[in-house]
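Reminder to self: C-alpha cells first, then the designed residues, so the page reads top to bottom the way the pipeline ran.
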C-alpha cells in the first residue's frame, strides 16, 4: 500500500510544498485585512497540505513529539473543558470554533521542514506589503472623509480600520519590526538596493500608527522599539546609536501629540472620557465602558474563583452584573471584559489563567527563542494588549498570534 507521503511525492516536491505554504500564508495575511473567510481558507489549506503530503499518522506523530507545539493545545482545552459547566452551549461552541487554530496550525506545521531562505523572504515581505497597502487604503479613506471622521473623535470614535482596530494596529506594529528584521538580516528578495524602500515603508508604518491613534498599537510600538534599542546597546554594543535612539524615543510621543491632529484629538477625548467616568457618566463613553467591563468580569470571576463560570456563559453572566450594578448602560454598549486576563478568570478561573500563561510563555523560554529579538518583541506586542483587550477572543487576534508563532518557530528551529 502506497503511503500518503509517497503518493504526494510523485506530484509535489518539498520545494513546491514550501511555495504552497508561502502562498496560503499570504491568503491568511490578506484575509486579516479584508476577508475572514480567506484567512480561514488559508489555515485549512496549510493543514490539508501537511495531511496529504506527510499522511495523517506521520503528521500526528510529529505533532506529539514536539512539546513546544503540543503545549499550545492548552489554549483550546481550557475553553473546551469549560463547556462542561457552561449552560449556553451555542455560545460555548462559538468560542471553541475561535480556538480551533491552536490545534490546526501547530498540527500543520509539526511535520514541515524549515522553510529555506528564499521562501521565508517572500513570506515576510508578503506580510509587510499587505500591511503597508492596507494602511495606505485606510489613510486615503481617512483623508477623503477627514471632516466627518475628525468630528467623530469627539464622540469617542476613531478612524475606520479593517475588522478590529486594536488587532489591526498590533499587526501593523509588528510589520514595522518585520521591516527592521529584514534590514538587519539582509533578507532582501533580490539585492541590497531594496533597503531604501524598506526604510521608507518602516517610516510610513511608524507615522501611520500615530495617525491611526489606537493606543494599544502605539503602546506595542513603543515597547517594542524600547526593547529593540536596548538590544542594540547591550547585545550589539552599539552604544552611541542606542543612546541617540533612546533620547529620540523620549521626545517622539510629545512631538507626535503636538503635530498630528488625530493623535491630539484622541488624547484630549481620552482625558474627557476619564473625567466623565469619575463623574459617574459611563454610557456612550468608550474608556468608561471598558473599565466597567473589567469590573463586571472581576465580579463574575469571584463567583467561582477556581474554574470560572464557563466560556459559554460569559455574556449572560456579565449582563447580569450590568443589570444589577450598571443599569444605566444600554444593552448595545455592554461588553464582555476588555482584558485578556480578566476574561480568562471570569470564564476559566485561576486554573485557566495559569494554563494560558504557561502556554504563552513556554515557546519563549523552553526553546530559548527569547534570545531572538523579533520573537520576543512579537510576544511583547501581544502581551501589552492583554491589559486593555481580550486579544485572543476573536478570529483575527487568534489567527495573527498562531500563524506568526508557527512561522517564527519554524524559522528559528535548528537546520536539519
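Designed residues (416 positions):
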Amino acid at each position: 500500500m502506497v503511503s500518503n507521503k509517497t503518493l504526494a511525492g510523485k506530484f509535489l516536491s518539498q520545494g513546491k510544498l514550501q511555495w504552497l505554504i508561502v502562498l496560503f500564508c499570504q491568503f491568511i495575511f490578506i484575509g486579516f485585512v479584508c476577508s475572514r473567510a480567506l484567512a480561514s481558507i488559508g489555515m485549512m489549506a496549510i493543514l490539508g497540505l501537511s495531511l496529504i503530503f506527510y499522511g495523517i499518522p506521520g503528521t500526528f506523530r510529529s505533532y506529539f513529539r514536539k512539546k513546544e507545539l503540543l503545549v499550545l493545545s492548552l489554549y483550546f482545552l481550557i475553553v473546551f473543558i469549560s463547556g462542561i459547566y457552561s449552560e449556553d452551549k451555542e455560545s460555548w461552541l462559538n468560542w471553541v470554533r475561535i480556538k480551533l487554530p491552536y490545534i490546526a496550525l501547530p498540527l500543520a506545521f509539526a511535520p514541515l521542514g524549515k522553510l529555506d531562505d528564499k521562501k521565508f523572504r517572500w513570506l515576510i515581505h508578503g506580510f509587510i506589503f499587505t500591511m503597508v497597502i492596507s494602511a495606505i487604503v485606510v489613510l486615503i479613506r481617512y483623508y477623503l472623509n477627514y471632516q466627518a471622521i475628525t468630528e467623530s473623535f469627539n464622540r469617542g470614535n476613531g478612524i475606520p480600520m479593517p475588522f478590529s482596530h486594536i488587532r489591526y494596529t498590533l499587526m501593523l506594529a509588528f510589520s514595522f519590526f518585520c521591516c527592521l528584521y529584514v534590514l538587519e538580516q539582509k533578507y532582501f528578495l533580490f539585492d541590497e538596493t531594496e533597503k531604501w524602500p524598506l526604510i521608507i515603508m518602516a517610516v510610513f508604518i511608524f507615522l501611520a500608527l500615530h495617525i491611526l491613534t489606537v493606543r494599544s498599537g502605539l503602546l506595542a510600538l513603543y515597547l517594542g522599539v524600547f526593547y529593540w534599542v536596548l538590544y542594540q546597546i547591550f547585545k550589539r554594543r552599539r552604544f552611541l546609536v542606542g543612546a541617540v535612539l533612546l533620547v529620540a524615543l523620549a521626545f517622539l510621543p510629545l512631538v507626535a501629540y503636538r503635530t498630528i491632529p488625530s493623535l491630539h484629538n484622541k488624547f484630549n477625548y481620552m482625558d474627557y472620557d476619564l473625567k466623565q467616568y469619575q463623574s459617574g457618566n459611563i454610557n456612550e463613553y468608550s474608556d468608561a465602558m471598558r473599565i466597567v467591563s473589567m469590573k463586571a468580569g472581576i465580579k463574575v470571576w469571584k463567583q467561582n474563583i477556581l474554574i470560572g463560570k464557563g466560556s459559554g456563559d460569559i455574556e449572560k453572566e456579565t449582563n447580569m452584573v450590568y443589570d444589577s450594578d450598571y443599569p444605566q448602560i444600554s444593552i448595545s454598549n455592554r461588553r464582555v471584559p476588555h482584558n485578556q486576563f480578566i476574561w480568562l478568570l471570569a470564564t476559566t478561573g485561576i486554573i485557566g489563567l495559569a494554563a494560558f500563561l504557561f502556554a504563552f510563555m513556554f515557546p519563549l523560554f523552553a526553546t530559548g527563542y527569547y534570545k531572538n529579538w523579533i520573537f520576543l518583541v512579537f510576544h511583547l506586542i501581544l502581551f501589552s494588549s492583554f491589559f486593555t483587550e481580550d486579544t485572543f477572543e476573536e478570529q483575527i487576534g487568534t489567527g495573527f498570534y498562531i500563524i506568526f508563532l508557527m512561522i517564527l518557530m519554524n524559522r528559528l528551529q535548528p537546520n536539519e
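The CA atoms of residues 318 and 324 lie 10 Å apart.
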